[in-house]
Amino acid sequence: MYLNFLYCFDRNFNVQGAVAINSLLNNVTSKVNIYIIHDEVDSFNMYLQIIKKHKNLNSVQIYKFNKSSVKLPTFKTHFSEATFYRLFMSEYLPKNIEHIMYLDADILCLNNPEIEVKNTIIKMKDENRTLAATTVGTRADSRELFEKLGLKNNKHLNAGVLLVDYIKWNELKIQEKLISILNERFEKIFHFDQELLNVLFDGDYTELGEILNFGYTKMENDPIEMQKVKRDVIFLHYSGKGKPWNVENIPYLSSRPYQEEYQNLNLDKYHLEFNKSFKTFRRFIKIVLNGKFLRLKYPKSYLLLSMRQLLKLR
């Protein structure tokens, strides 16, 4: 039985999606199936050709999301509407899938997930659960959130990594229920589709171990911590606003696993993005002046790519 993995992203996350998928394929030892729901399928074609050549890939299927079928909220943040695509997996994925693991495109696979995923599937069956996820907060530390969502339990999940019993998901018509909540709360949604999942499941999910969704909410420069993460963590989630491809974050040690995986795609030395803000420019100048970029494996490439991105912003 092949393990199944789902990724949902738009063209703005093509590089990140390719890095995430490639990192998974580089760490599994058995062949897996990859499913992708995307807004512009053709824009991902170059990366898809790279993925298709991987020895650990059994199959890859990419589906174009039908935007005309549903009304989605618009957010003026680093999130996009693609975060909602996973809620509509029933419209795209084959019905004969038993279990599927959804992963955000900003999640890097550091170690083989197969044993942990299979053990969690067994646990889900024992607990008769449709969903497995990682708890990221309790009523004690997020009382306002719990009251606003009307949650009755004492924990809420992070939607970056979800293991789904796909048969039960369809039998229980989870998609229809989530869309109903979306329509009811359309004007009040403040935490994206994660909010919808918490409202519907309200604590009724199997616990995923932290190593399957280890969050970096900020960049780290601790070499001992980095060693521990690379040794013990399976899925590293760059869940904060600071991302490992941001020009000001690339010198951090915690960006290294992502950039090394990007280099495995043989596209360039760094995946680098330069945001349009004075704060970002000021931080970049500071990195150059204090020489932090010289600690990088490819300092000249970092400067050259940074200047190219900076010139594009003009």
Task: Considering the chains and any ligands shown, give keywords for the structure.
single chain, Spore Coat Polysaccharide Biosynthesis Protein SpsA, Chain A, alpha/beta, 314 residues, three-stranded mixed sheet
SSE layout and pairing:
Layout: E1 3-9, H1 14-27, E2 32-38, H2 45-52, E3 57-64, E4 99-103, E5 107-109, H3 114-127, E6 131-138, H4 143-149, E7 155-165, H5 166-171, H6 174-184, H7 192-201, E8 206-207, E9 214-215, H8 223-232, E10 235-237, H9 256-263, H10 278-289, H11 299-312
Parallel strand pairs: 1-2, 1-4, 2-3, 6-8, 9-10
Antiparallel strand pairs: 4-7, 5-10, 6-7
Helix pairs in contact: 6-7
What is the gist of this entry?
This protein is an alpha/beta fold and 314 residues long. It is 36% helix and 18% strand.
Describe this entry's structure for a reader.
With 314 residues, this protein is of the alpha/beta class. It has helices spanning 14-27, 45-52, 114-127, 143-149, 166-171, 174-184, 192-201, 223-232, 256-263, 278-289, 299-312; strands spanning 3-9, 32-38, 57-64, 99-103, 107-109, 131-138, 155-165, 206-207, 214-215, 235-237. The chain folds into 2 domains: 3-208, Spore Coat Polysaccharide Biosynthesis Protein SpsA, Chain A; 214-312, no CATH class. The protein is 36% helix and 18% strand. The strands form 2 sheets. A 7-stranded mixed beta sheet has the order 3-2-1-4-7-6-8, with helices on both faces. A 3-stranded mixed beta sheet has the order 5-10-9. Helix 6 (174-184) packs across helix 7. The termini are far apart.
